């Protein structure tokens, strides 16, 4: 059995409510990330609405060469996320816009990622585009206990197709600490923010129902809710339906801590549209992660991951994420979203 690699961080961390001078301590770190991969299809036609476009003879002329280029670019990004904190990169990585197990197999076996021995959890949903969410995890850090897809019932008369992406729920052990993870990709804003809002509120309510069950059983359950919510940190679906707060030292029972408010308020984002940044890709945490004095993992920091090679440097979309396609034209980029990540720390006793 492989031992978990030991990477220590020495930090001065002040504990809220104490007057003592902070002493240097060593901490173990775990990087938790989320990445919308932007239409990560294989090149075969499987009968889905958008699937035929992503074939060699489809409108996007999606060849094996284009697919392999896409895989290389995605792996380049994933291999680098969070390595300034932990050389192993993400212990857990939520994904959106994944077609099937075949593309995930190709991803985790790529030479840039193979040494990490990533495994994955994925279920096919009834999404009209044939894309789903998934979870990659490094088995040296995270052990799966159970998983299941959660169906999202859209409200009657919603503008969306009859089905949207399922939510992936995974329970596992993060270095022997029980953690619940929900991976989301909520209905888009296509047709207008307000008109499409009921679909996202329905998705938020589906997650919240399950969170309430967990918290009623154990108020300090460690829960991570991540995804492309297609809503901002200040949107009703996030604040009211999911019950989030940006006040880490004044979190109420059952609330989720949202660390992305500050970045959102200063104009940072994970995707751009019509010269405006949005921060749809978020990672939220239950109260159990906000106490630095408890012996398990606690929240340390969060960031949008972006490197120069991931960014358009010329033209009308200068500064935007460099996407794979612009319409039917292959751009040879990475994704139309930047990944986001958080760092969890646990004191070495």
TrEMBL record:
Protein keywords: Endonuclease, Hydrolase, Nuclease
InterPro entries from the UniProt entry: Endo/exonu/phosph_ase_sf, Endo/exonuclease/phosphatase
Keyword Thylakoid: no
Origin superkingdom: Bacteria
Annotated GO MF terms: endonuclease activity
Endonuclease/exonuclease/phosphatase domain sequence ranges: 32-345
Annotated Pfam families: Exo_endo_phos_3
Gene3D superfamilies, alphabetized: Endonuclease/exonuclease/phosphatase
Keyword field contains Nuclease: yes
PANTHER family given in the database record: ENDONUCLEASE/EXONUCLEASE/PHOSPHATASE FAMILY PROTEIN (AFU_ORTHOLOGUE AFUA_3G09210), ENDONUCLEASE_EXONUCLEASE_PHOSPHATASE FAMILY PROTEIN (AFU_ORTHOLOGUE AFUA_3G09210)
The protein, known as: Endonuclease
Annotated source species: Niabella soli DSM 19437
């Amino acid at each position: 059995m492989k031992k978990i690699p030991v990477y220590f961080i020495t930090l001065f961390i002040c504990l809220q409510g104490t007057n003592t001078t902070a002493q240097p301590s060593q901490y173990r770190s775990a990087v938790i990330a989320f990445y919308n991969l932007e239409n990560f299809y294989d090149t075969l036609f499987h009968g889905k609405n958008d699937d035929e476009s992503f074939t060699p003879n489809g409108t996007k002329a999606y060849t094996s060469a284009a697919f392999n280029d896409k895989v290389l670019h995605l792996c380049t990004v994933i291999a680098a996320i969070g390595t300034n904190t932990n050389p192993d990169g993400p212990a857990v990585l939520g994904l959106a816009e994944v077609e099937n197990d075949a593309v995930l197999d190709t991803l985790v076996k790529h030479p840039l990622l193979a040494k990490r021995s990533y495994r994955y959890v994925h279920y096919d949903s009834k999404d009209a585009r044939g894309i789903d969410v998934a979870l990659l995890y490094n088995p040296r850090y995270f052990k799966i206990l159970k998983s299941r897809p959660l169906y999202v019932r859209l409200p009657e008369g919603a503008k969306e197709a009859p089905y949207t992406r399922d939510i992936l729920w995974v329970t596992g052990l993060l270095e022997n600490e029980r953690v619940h993870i929900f991976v989301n990709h909520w209905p888009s804003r296509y047709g207008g923010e307000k008109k499409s809002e009921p679909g996202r509120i329905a998705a938020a309510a589906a997650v919240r129902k399950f969170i309430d069950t967990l918290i009623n059983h154990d108020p300090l359950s460690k829960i991570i809710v991540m995804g492309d919510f297609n809503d901002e940190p200040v949107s009703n679906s996030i604040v009211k339906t999911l019950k989030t707060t940006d006040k880490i030292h004044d979190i109420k029972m059952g609330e989720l801590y949202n660390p992305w408010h500050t970045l959102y308020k200063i104009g940072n984002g994970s995707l751009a549209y019509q010269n405006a940044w949005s921060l749809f890709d978020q990672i939220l945490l239950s109260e159990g992660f906000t106490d630095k004095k408890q012996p398990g993992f606690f929240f340390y920091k969060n960031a949008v991951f972006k490197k120069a090679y991931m960014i358009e440097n010329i033209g009308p979309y200068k500064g935007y994420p460099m996407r794979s396609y612009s319409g039917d034209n292959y751009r040879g980029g990475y994704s139309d979203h930047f990944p986001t990540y958080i760092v969890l720390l646990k004191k070495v006793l």
